[in-house]
Amino acid sequence: MTPFSPKSSCKLLAVAAFLIVGASADCNNKYCSRSEASTLSLRTTTPTQDYFVPNGDFECGLTPWTVQVPDSAITYFIGAPGHTSSNSFQVKFTPPSARTELGVSARIISAPVRVIPNTPYQLSFWTYFDNQRAGFIGVQFNNNPVYTIDATDHGYGGNFTLNTVNYTPKNDTVTIKFEYLFGGASGVASLDRIDSVTFAPVQ
Question: Which InterPro entries does this one have (predicted)?
Answer without folding.
Answer: CenC_carb-bd (IPR003305), Galactose-bd-like_sf (IPR008979)
